[in-house]
Structure formats: C-alpha cells, structure tokens
Design a protein that fits this description.
The complex is a heterodimer of chains A (178) and B (178).
Chain A (H helix, E strand, L loop, with lengths): L4 H14 L5 H11 L5 H13 L4 H44 L3 H29 L3 H16 L4 H22 L1
Helix pairs in contact in A: 1-2, 1-4, 2-5, 3-4, 6-7
Chain B lengths: L1 H15 L10 H11 L5 H13 L6 H41 L3 H28 L4 H16 L4 H17 L4
Helix pairs in contact in B: 1-4, 3-4, 6-7
The chains are: A mainly alpha (178), B mainly alpha (178).
C-alpha cells in the first residue's frame, strides 16, 4: 500500500473536520473502512502504542501512520491535516458563538449531536472488538480497562500503567505457548 | 505580550507531557493554571471555551488553541497549540522510528498484541463517559443506542448517524419535546 503525502494530509483533514465530539470513530472509519490504508489489527496496534504515550491519541497515531507511509514529511502532513482545518473551523465557531448560543434549536441540535457522538465512539469499540475476535484473556483485559476507567473513574494513566504490563505479559505467554 | 506568549509556551509544553490517555487528563490542572495561578481568565470563561471546543470538530486538544487565542490572539493560538502538541509529537515520532527499526521483531509484536485490547477498552470507556455526561433522558439514550448499533454493525458513513440524530433533535424541539 502506498499513500502519498497529499492523501495523508487530506485523509487526516477529513478526520479532523468530521470529528464532532471526538475524532476516534472517524479516524478508524477513514483509515480502515474507507481508504483501507491499514488493516483492523494494524490500526488497533498503532492506536494502542499511541495510547501509552502522552498526548492526544489520534495525534500520536497520525504521526506514526504518516511516518509509516512517507517518513518525516508524511508525519508532518498528517499532523497538519488533522489540526489546521479544524482550528480554522473552531475560530469561525468562536466568532459567531455569542450570537447563536442562545437559540433553542442550536441547544437541541448540540444535545442530540452529543448523544450520537457518544454512540459513535461506543459503536467503534464494539466493531473493532467484533472484527478482531479477541480470545478470552484479551476480552478480560479489554473489559478491565473499560470498567476501571469508564465505571470506576480510575485515571487513564494509572489504568494503563497497571493493565499494560499485565496485558503484555499475557500476550508474551500466549506467543511462547502457542 | 511577549511575557504572555512565554507563559503559554511553558505551561502547555509542561502539561503536554502529562496528557496520558488524552487531553482530558490534564483539564483540571489546566484549569488551575489558567484561572487560579496565572489569571488568564475567570472560571466562567474557561468553562465557556471548553464547551466551545467540545462543540467544534477536531481533536480535544484544540481547547488549548482556543485558550491561546483568547489570551493572546493568533500568536497565542499558534504558541499554545505548538507547545501542547510538539513534545508529544516528538515522542511519538521517536517511538515510530524505534518501531520501524525493530521491524518484525518478536518483542514489538508482543507489545502490540498486549496493547490492542487496552486500546479498545479505553475507547469503550471514553464513549461510556461521553454518554453518561451528556444530557440524560429517553431521547438521548435512544439516540446513543441507535448510533452505537449503526456503527457497530454497519460500514455506512458515520455522518448518517450524526445527521439523523441532529435532525431528530431539531424536530423534537420544534414539536415541543426538547
């Protein structure tokens, strides 16, 4: 698979521009479903690496994916695509916000959009899990990650610091055994 | 002005390396610095900017761009965004190069295997948190559930889900349910 710098820029610009309420669902949709730059598993593992590093997940993934296809310039193209266009939109919204924020229809649209955005994120996690068909250990680790951060509100850094090594050790054992 | 830019640069460069799991991890500290320590803005303005960034498309890290813009105009926006994304990007780039050098090595494959379930669990958790922090009510719940199923079980464009939800929200509001 060869992905040009322009394609990287445009692809990540699309992810940034459409990413209302979070870019994670769009990143997977564009990269895996629509453009097929990476397989489900390749994408999930890059996302996993992006998650243990500090910084926004998608930004980290953009750097790694850009570098993967086009080296340093690719990483910069992906990053600029992801950030520049949404920043321009954001400034536009900031400029008109005071005039539109009081309108009841705007409030209703935002509330409905936020509810849908949450669903997009949950659905993306379910879809990735379905397609990767985790074994029992991976399922337990994934659910433990979800429960600790989502239900018990453990800080994500702590959850990653504890579950990461455990999960890697389990993966190591499985590879040696199987 | 220069002093302000310097403040923006230092504070966000430092915070950027604490963003484990994403920008939301550092929002409390960001609030403390911006409102209590450096008096860039009052608490209400902070909340306002935060809401605005959530509303706009793009990665969550862009709340920082908006804060920079508020504090010191376009120069502030550029300095704040660069400071908040630069250090993590360099780390991600270093990691990317390390992974490329490791190529098909076994330890890298094991680490990636171990991180995949964690990544998916964390996406699920963030969707869950988004769902539980948005306005509750039968309509929001229904929209979230429908969007979840749409994404989990189809490959259609996510815009359909988002658009349908916003349309529904507007109709309900016009009909007097909102």
């Amino acid at each position: 698979m060869n992905v040009s710098r322009t394609e990287l820029f445009l692809g990540f610009a699309k992810i940034g521009l459409l990413g209302f309420g979070g870019v994670a669902p769009w990143a997977r949709h564009v990269i895996v479903s629509e453009k097929r730059w990476l397989s489900e598993r390749e994408y999930a593992s890059i996302l996993g690496v992006g998650q243990v590093l500090p910084g926004p997940n998608t930004v980290n993934s953009a750097i790694i994916i850009g570098d993967h296809f086009q080296g340093t310039v690719g990483a910069v193209s992906a990053l600029l695509g992801l950030l520049c266009t949404p920043i321009a939109v954001l400034i536009g919204i900031a400029l008109i916000y005071d005039r539109i924020s009081g309108l009841p229809s705007v409030g209703a649209a935002i509330a409905a959009g936020a509810a849908a955005a949450a669903g997009l994120v949950i659905g993306t996690a379910i879809k990735m899990a379905r397609r990767l068909q985790p074994d029992a250990t991976a399922l337990v680790v994934g659910l433990a990650a979800f429960a600790s951060v989502g239900l018990l509100h453990v800080p994500m850094a702590l959850a990653v610091a504890v579950l990461g090594p455990i999960s890697i050790a389990l993966a190591w054992r499985k590879r040696r055994g199987g | 002005m220069n002093e302000l830019l310097q403040q923006l640069g230092t504070v966000f460069a430092w915070l950027s390396l604490l963003q484990f799991g994403g920008t939301n991890a550092v929002v409390p500290e960001m609030h403390r610095q911006a409102v209590d320590v450096l008096h860039w803005m009052d608490a209400q303005t902070f909340a306002h900017l935060f809401a605005l960034a959530q509303l706009a498309p793009g990665p969550n890290v862009m709340v920082v761009s908006l804060m920079g813009w508020h504090v010191a105009g376009i120069a502030g926006l550029l300095v704040a965004t660069a400071a908040m994304t630069g250090p993590p990007c360099l780390l991600a780039f270093g990691m990317s190069r390390l992974m490329r050098r490791a190529g098909q090595s076994r330890w890298l494959a094991v680490v990636k295997d171990g991180l995949v379930p964690l990544a998916i669990g964390m996406i699920l958790a963030s969707g869950w948190i988004m769902a539980s922090s948005s306005e509750s009510g039968p309509m929001s719940l229904g929209i979230t559930a429908a969007a979840t199923a749409f994404v989990a079980f189809t490959e259609y464009n996510l815009l359909w889900a988002l658009g349908a939800a916003i349309g529904l929200g507007l109709c309900a509001q016009a009909a007097g349910f909102g």
